[in-house]
Predict the 3D structure of the following.
Amino acid sequence: MAVVAIVGGQWGDEGKGKVIDLLAEKARMVARFSGGDNAGHTVINPYGEFKLHLVPSGIFSPQVTCIIGNGVVINPASLLKEIDDLQNHGVDTSHLVISDRAHLIMPYHTLLDGLEEERRKQKALGTTRRGIGPAFSDKVARLGIRAGDLLNKDIFLSHLKSALEFKNAILTKVYQVSPLSLEEIYEQYCHYGERLAPFIRETSSIIHEALIKEWLILLEGAQGTLLDPDFGTYPYVTSSSPLAGAGAIGTGISPMAIDRVLGVFKAYITRVGGGPMPTELKDEVGKLIREKAHEYGATTGRPRRCGWFDAVAGRFSSQVNGFSDIALTHLDIYDSFSSIKICTAYEFNGRTLNYFPSDSSILGKCQPIYEELPGWQESTAEIRDFGKLPPQARRYMARLEELLSCRISLVSIGPRREQMIQVRSIL
Ligand code: GDP
């Protein structure tokens, strides 16, 4: 079997949850490797419709060990709510495992996330204000508290005391707001710890056992490549790496253990929050895409910015991840379009740029250069065979494959699990 990393190729919300839910039917392990409950993977299957923020999308397949890896930051309250919600829908969660190395989101992280966004005023990053950035900052600053700490109340109290002393100084002296109570947080998190204890384990050894047994393992990414802190549109990025390479670090396996890297792309592009987006459509076409695809954030409900497929960004994404295959989602959204544009290069200051600039202020001034292809103007929603897709749709995909130098192996033509065409096996 194989290890497959599944990664967002754009600015997130590409439909990774749906792809993972489907592939998990054949897998034995799904391990989420980055982000926090700022991610929202929508899964629609026979159990109902779910927005998973932390629990891996493989949870619906009982044979799959679902791991929340060390690279994830966990808000215990959100995780417990998600577990309760799944259980109330009859989903078995006993095969969920949480890495003892995963860092926790604490009440001061959420509070500071909001205060920092307000301080930035017009330059706000558009974070979900769920404390993800501050929690990752503390991880690197060696001030973090990890899931494993909840298993030992003395250790937890000592870590909490030192972190809170520092955080309360910032809250009171910099932001002039009230300090947080040590006792309240301690009590609350001890309660969370008791509930989460059965799930918390050393997970890298569990994954290694699965590697030895040659199980099919899926590494579940969150957000998308263009939000990567190094390669994304800095500073309008997320705070942990959504790239395939992070799949190794965020779970504790060797990069050489990853056999395939599946990049998930929408047939168009969307973005939530601030930052440059060269192909954004602020006109009726953008509105049409938003309404047809219900492009409103799974976590925040915010309307997503919509635009034509950006192949400059896509090529860059393919390069930094080394995609072996692409899953193209939302092809059905174009069903009624008479023509479709693809951005193949940018124009900046009278020059043609064929690469994705690292400077967001330059990217913000790039004008897309488009190529126009004919639409197909028929429904693809019930098609299950690649050969039966309209020739214009196949031509559109062939052009994307050419521009991204990567083959499209899966095509999604609707939100439901069965609305997927397998062009070739990715394994
Ligand atoms: P993720 O975070 O990458 O899993 O993506 P989200 O769940 O945030 O957003 C994807 C949205 O698109 C969800 O509402 C899915 O149900 C929906 N979706 C996924 N694939 C398709 C598709 O091929 N066509 C349509 N119309 N919707 C899709």
